[in-house]
Design goal:
Chains A, B: This is tRNA(Ile)-lysidine synthase. Chains A, B: ATP binds at residues 26-31. Chains A, B: Keywords: ATP-binding, Cytoplasm, Ligase, Nucleotide-binding, tRNA processing. Chains A, B: It comes from Christiangramia flava JLT2011. 2 copies of one chain form a homodimer. The first copy, chain A, has helices spanning 2-12, 29-40, 57-73, 84-91, 95-113, 125-138, 143-146, 164-173, 188-205, 209-238, 250-255, 259-267, 275-280, 383-389, 394-399, and strands at 20-24, 44-51, 77-81, 118-120, 151-152, 155-156, 239-242, 245-249, 289-291, 295-300, 303-308, 317-320, 326-329, 332-339, 349-353, 361-364, 371-372, 381-382, 402-405, 408-412, 416-417, 430-435. By secondary structure, chain A is of the alpha+beta class. The first copy, chain A, folds into 3 domains: 2-209, 3-Layer(aba) Sandwich (Rossmann fold), CATH 3.40.50; 243-308, no CATH class; 317-435, Phenylalanyl-trna Synthetase, Chain B, domain 3 (Phenylalanyl-tRNA Synthetase, Chain B, domain 3, 3-Layer(bba) Sandwich). In chain A, helix 3 (57-73) links the parallel strand 2 (44-51) and strand 3. The radius of gyration of chain A is 32 Å and the shape is elongated.
C-alpha cells in the first residue's frame, strides 16, 4: 500500500510534497495509517486531534495516545476540546453533525493561523460506500448519494481510493497501534449492520465493487455539479431578492420540466422537511404557506416568497394617548406634533385635523373586513382591494401598521391617508403624523 | 390492496377508466395480480403475452396458461413468438436486453394497430429497488440508478408503489394461480441474492424503505431530467453536425465545469466503454482516438470528432493503367480523357500534360513526408502543412485520395493540382482528370 500511496501523491497530488499539511488524527486505525504513510513519504505535516469529550476518560486517553504518537514522530501537535453536546443542543442538530461542524471549523482555523496549506483526512472507500448505503436506506436527497470527493477546496482525502482491508493490512504489517472507538454514534448500529451484513454480500457479487462504486459516485457527483451549474444559470431569471427575502417567479418555474427538483435545489438549505407540501405550493391558492424551523415559503400570486420566520413576540396592538408625542413600535417610531400649517407631504408623513380624531389612537395590523376612504377619493375601499391593487406581498401586508381613530382608519401607515381626517379650510388644529 | 389500487386509478390515472388498455401478462404472479385488479376495477383491457422461446415447453406452457386465463376473463388475447436468442446475437446484446426491446416494440405495435391507448406492466416497488441494487453493484452510469417511472409516455406501471409482499398476499387471498418463471436470466443469481440477503437487512434497518427509496429515485430521476434539460440548452453551442459526424467544440466544453459528465451524456448512446480514455481526449494531442464497437472519437485540433467507425476493407492503393478510361474506387470514379483544350476548371476536374505523366498512375491515401508543388506556386509544400492550412479534419484527411505519377503527386484529388504537371504552351496532349 505504501507504494500505491506514494504513487498517488506523485501523480494526483504532487503539490503536497512541498508544502505544510495538517493531518486530522483521531487515533483510530485509518488516521494512524494515514499519518504513518505521510511520514514514510517524507511529507511535512502537523497533527491535529479533536477531543469531542463524548466518552469521558476514553476521549482523554485518545488525546494522550495521539499526543505521544506526534512526539515520537517529532511533528507539531494541536489539540482542542469541544463542548460537543452543548453545541449540538444549542444548534438543534445531531451530536454527529455537531462534531463534524466543530472539527472542520477548527481545522480551517488551524490551517490559516499556522500556515498549513492543506488538511488531510483518512476517509477511505468503504466509508464512502457505507455512508451511501446509510443514506440510501434512510432516504435522502441526491446529495446524500454523491458522497465525499478526494479533494474539496483545501481538504484532501488521499485514502479514498483504498479499502478498509488494505488499510488494516498495512496497520498489521507495520505493527501500528491504534485506539478502538467505542462511541455510540447514532448511526453506529446501522453502519455495523451495513459493514458486516450488506457489503460482504455485495463484494461477493462484484469483487471490484469499491472501484465500480467510485465511478458511480463520480457520475452522481458530476451530475449534481451539472444541476448546480444549470440552476445558477436559471437563477437570475427565476429568483429576485426583495425586502422580505426571495421571490421565485412561478410563471418562469412552471415552464421548466422537473420544477420540483429546481425548488428542492433552491430551497435545500432552509431546513424544510415537508417537501411534498413545498412542491404543492406551485399549484396552491395565493396565501398558502409551508414552514421550516427558520423560514416560511408563501404562495403569493404568481410567486413563491421565501422569508425568515418571524418570532411572534411583540404585541399586535398599541395605544397612542392624547398627551403623547411619540410611540416606539416594531419597525419605527410614530410621532405626532401640532403644526401651524401643512408642510411638505411625503409617504411617511400626513397632516390631519385634530378635532376629527378620537383619542387614544390605536395602531394595529390590518384585519379582514377593514376598509377606509382613500385620500382624495369619494367613497370607501376595502383594504384587501387596496393591497391587491398596490401589489402588496403577503409579508408586506403583515408588516404594515394601520393607525385608527376608534373603528375608523386614519392612515395606512407610510402608504395612504384617509380622506375623512384631512385638513380642511375650517380645521382649527393641524397635527403632523409621521412614522419611521 | 384492491381498495388502494382502485384509489390509485381514481386519483392518479383517472383516464384509464374510459379507454382501451393493453396488459402485459407473462403469467407470473405480478402480472396475474395486475390483470385481476384491472378486471375487478372494470377496466377495458386486452392481454398481450410474449413467448420469447427461451425455455422450450415451459415457454409454450406459459403461453397456453395466459391464453386460458384471457378466455376465462373473456378479454382479447394477443401472443407473439420471438427468436430472442437470434435477435440478441445479431444485435450483439444480452438476451435480456433483446427480450426487453422485442417486448416493447411489439407492445407499441399492438397498441397502435388495435387502438389501445396505454400499455400496463406489472413492475412493482421491489423490482425497482432490486434493479437499482444490481446496477449499483455492477457499476453504472446515473441512468442505472434512476429506475423506471410510474408513467413513461404510453407505458403505465400502476403497481410501482406496491411491494412484492402486498402483491403475493393479494394473490394468496384471491386464490390466484400463476406460473413460476424458471428462467436463468443473466441477472437471476444476483437478483436472488439481493432479494433474499440484502433487501431484508435493509428493511430491518428501515421498515419504510420502499417508500423512502421511491422518493430517492424521484430525486435521481428529476436530477437526470435537469441534466438533460441543461445539455439540450448547451447543445447548439457545443455540437455541430458535419459531413463525417459530429464536432464537439472543446473551447466551449472546457469552460463548463463537470465536462466529463457532459461528454458522458452526449456520447452515452455510442457504446463507448473506456470512459476515462474518452475524458482524457479533452487534454490529449490532436490525432488521438478512442473507439467503440460502432464509433470513434477523435481529438482533432480544438474539437472532438465523433464519426462512424469505418470498416477497413478495401485497398488503400489503386493502379490506373495508361489505356484505362476510368477506375471505380471508394468515394467515386476517377476518369481520364484526352481533350483538345482546357475547358472550365473546377475543384473536381484538372487538366494535365500527358507527356509529363509516368503511367501507371497510382491512387493512394496520404502518408507522412508527402509533399507537392501547389498549382500556381513556386516551390514545394508538405501535405501535412497544406492540410493544416486548409483546416482538414482527420476524417477528411483519411478520406482524401492522392493521385501520383511515380513518387510525385499530381493531384490532391478534388482539392489542389500540382504545378509540375500543368498544361503549358508547348504541351502536346492534354488530359482531363476528374473525380466524383
Amino acid at each position: 500500500m505504501e507504494k500505491e500511496f506514494k504513487n498517488l501523491i506523485k501523480t494526483r497530488f504532487p503539490y503536497l510534497c512541498n508544502t505544510r499539511l495538517l493531518l486530522a488524527v483521531s487515533g483510530g486505525v485509518d488516521s494512524m495509517v494515514l499519518a504513518c504513510l505521510c511520514a514514510h513519504a517524507h511529507l511535512d505535516f502537523s497533527i491535529a486531534h479533536c477531543n469531542f469529550m463524548l466518552r469521558g476518560e476514553e476521549s482523554d486517553g485518545d488525546e494522550s495516545f495521539v499526543r505521544n504518537f506526534a512526539e515520537q514522530l517529532e511533528v507539531p501537535f494541536f489539540t482542542q476540546a469541544f463542548q460537543t453536546e452543548k453545541y449540538a443542543s444549542e444548534k438543534g442538530i445531531s451530536t454527529q453533525m455537531a462534531a463534524r461542524d466543530l472539527r472542520y471549523e477548527w481545522f480551517e482555523e488551524l490551517r490559516k493561523t499556522n500556515r498549513h496549506e492543506y488538511i488531510l483526512t483518512a476517509h477511505h472507500a468503504n466509508d464512502n460506500l457505507e455512508t451511501f448505503l446509510i443514506n440510501l436506506i434512510r432516504g435522502t436527497g441526491p446529495e446524500g448519494l454523491s458522497g465525499i470527493s478526494e479533494k474539496n477546496h483545501k481538504v484532501i482525502r488521499p485514502l479514498l481510493s483504498f479499502s478498509r482491508k488494505e488499510i488494516e493490512a498495512y496497520a498489521a504489517e507495520n505493527k501500528l497501534e491504534w485506539r478502538e472507538d467505542s462511541s455510540n454514534a447514532s448511526d453506529k448500529y446501522m453502519r455495523n449492520k451495513i459493514r458486516h451484513q450488506l457489503v460482504p454480500v455485495m463484494m461477493e457479487l462484484n469483487p471490484q465493487l469499491l472501484q465500480s462504486f467510485a465511478k458511480t459516485q463520480d457520475h452522481l457527483r458530476e451530475n449534481m455539479d451539472l444541476v448546480e451549474d444549470y440552476i445558477s444559470l436559471l437563477y437570475p431569471k427565476l429568483v429576485q431578492k426583495d425586502l422580505y427575502g426571495y421571490q421565485i417567479d412561478l410563471d418562469f418555474l412552471k415552464k421548466i420540466p422537473s420544477k420540483n427538483q429546481i425548488l428542492y435545489q433552491l430551497l435545500k438549505s432552509f431546513r424544510f422537511t415537508e417537501w411534498d407540501d413545498v412542491y404543492n405550493l406551485v399549484d396552491a391558492q395565493s396565501g398558502k404557506m409551508v414552514f421550516s424551523p427558520t423560514h416560511r415559503l408563501i404562495r403569493d400570486r404568481e410567486t413563491l416568497l421565501l422569508t425568515e420566520r418571524r418570532v411572534k413576540t411583540g404585541r399586535k396592538h398599541y395605544v397612542f394617548e392624547e398627551n403623547e408625542k411619540f410611540l416606539m413600535i416594531p419597525g419605527g417610531i410614530l410621532r405626532v406634533k401640532p403644526v401651524s400649517e401643512i408642510g411638505e407631504t411625503a409617504a411617511n408623513k400626513i397632516y390631519v385635523a385634530r378635532e376629527k380624531l378620537n383619542f387614544p389612537l390605536v395602531i394595529r395590523r390590518w384585519k379582514k373586513g377593514d376598509y377606509f376612504h382613500p385620500f382624495g377619493m369619494k367613497g370607501k375601499k376595502k383594504l384587501k382591494d387596496y393591497f391587491r391593487d398596490e401589489k402588496f406581498s403577503i409579508p408586506e401586508k403583515e408588516d404594515t401598521w394601520i393607525l385608527c381613530s376608534g373603528e375608523e382608519i386614519v392612515w395606512i401607515v407610510n402608504h395612504r391617508a384617509d380622506d375623512r381626517f384631512k385638513v380642511e379650510p375650517e380645521t382649527r388644529e393641524i397635527l403632523q403624523v409621521s412614522f419611521g
